[in-house]
């Protein structure tokens, strides 16, 4: 369905790069975007000891975070210059333990909408023997226009 | 259903505390356990700038991580001394933006099983005006016995 | 959080009852609403052979349906007379096999919003030995105003 | 990853067809399997008035059921002759309203395991203007051996 994707912000790359400057948690865990296309974003984390849980595998929270980042920014590429997206919900299925030198998440918009985008992300671990799919996330991203009243009652 | 919870490891607290020593990602994001009971675990993160996304709210990945930690260790309190749990899948619903000085997750086992535990976690943000529920997670935790063959085909 | 729930349609019961007249699938599987309060709806299905899967248990699709109905109408009680709700996504965790004479789902709004309601439903089976929780669903319900453009791009 | 799929039951088709004879709920809603391959199953429902909700669209419960059936039997094709699968959890994202003459679900095993299979299903509606993806489900299917103690504590 990717063929049908249109963006409401031709400068989406610049808008996202500007947002990333203030993305403290992504910086804290070493998460960067390596590709930003309309409806498709790739994120990467060079894996360090700090990303591990107690038996040396990548912590599930790291995987959830990179999936959320890739899927969320994929949705972000479509919205208007004044709008942004927030994660309404995300589900992550963990297929295999994560062990390797780099974590990669490929996010995509599966179904765009005026008020919500359905997005997904595949998470891979890259190691000496190649690249392996270790998790998949499906998410509902709400489109927010800060000039209007908020998404939810506070 | 909490009344029915039984643990297969009377020393579950010591087992968990020992595991925490090597929990690098939890240390990296300042996540600690503040209560460990049979089938119920509370986790906390004192919120800093490093936990924020681009508009100053707690990053969804932080919320997903603390929910996974609280729900996962709640399941961990029930398993045998040689077993552990891994997250098969987790879904997080984000009710409200997170802004405050402390993030708290209360994890619980909703339905224990021989091979999987269904767990949940409520995530609260604590600020000057009190405590507010901002997210809820539901998760399937697989019970792993490392002495047997792994959960999934590698 | 139920205390905070407000409805935008004082005649929500009448509106829902009118909708039920044309709810063909609910009729087809014998699903009725037994309680309709602001933000809380109970649904029931008297269990027959037609609700079973191959080994005599309630089919997961029946459980998913009654959970969707109870959670969805719970959200419906809050919206304006011209609005309705649609399920954006639902996750169902199946705790135990379903065997009994009646299936009951209690739906509730956990977090209301202008544009989406986060709802949940607990599903019980009632048998000779009492009532047992067999599943829980969490769902995002989108609020739709048919006078405006649709939720999603068609 | 489909290339790696192996079945533990060469007679999986016969086993499934035998199970279908007693699948009362599938019969009740007119759901049939139209293709059964290793790790891939297609289900169909000719749409009637009885499958509709109040405004004439396919009820979400019908979509959840056909997704569960297709994904579940996809997992079933892999397990041993004495084993079966049960849905531990399923999440369905509803992309578009369902309107047409036939509902089709394509289920697949994304990651097989000894004790659980991660499966997915895409749900399409077929109408006069062609076929359209309207929903996607992700699910954890537990592998059950009835000769051993049950999956969960009762």
Protein model, in words:
The structure is a homotetramer of 154-residue chains. Chain A is an alpha+beta fold. Chain A has one domain (7-144): Thiol Ester Dehydrase, Chain A, CATH 3.10.129.10. Chain A has three helices and six strands. Chain A has helices at residues 12-20, 24-28, 60-76; strands spanning 32-37, 40-46, 84-94, 102-111, 116-127, 130-144. In chain A, strands 1-2-4-5-6-3 form a six-stranded antiparallel beta sheet, with helices on one face. Chain A is globular. In chain A, 56% of the residues are buried. At the A-B interface, helix 2, helix 3 and strand 3 of A face helix 2, helix 3 and strand 3 of B.
């Amino acid at each position: 369905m990717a063929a049908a994707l249109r963006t409401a912000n031709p400068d989406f790359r610049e808008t996202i790069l500007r947002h990333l400057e203030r993305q403290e948690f992504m910086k804290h865990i070493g998460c960067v975007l390596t590709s930003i296309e309309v409806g498709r974003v790739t994120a990467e984390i060079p894996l360090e000891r700090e990303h591990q849980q107690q038996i040396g595998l990548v912590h599930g929270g790291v995987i959830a975070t990179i999936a959320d980042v890739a899927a969320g920014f994929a949705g972000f590429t479509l919205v208007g210059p004044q709008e942004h997206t927030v994660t309404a919900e995300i589900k992550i299925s963990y297929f295999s333990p994560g062990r390797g030198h780099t974590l990669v998440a490929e996010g995509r918009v599966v179904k765009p909408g005026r008020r919500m985008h359905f997005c997904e992300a595949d998470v891979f671990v890259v190691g000496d023997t190649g690249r392996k799919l270790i998790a998949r996330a499906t998410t509902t991203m709400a489109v927010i226009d800060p000039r209007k009243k908020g998404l939810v009652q506070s």
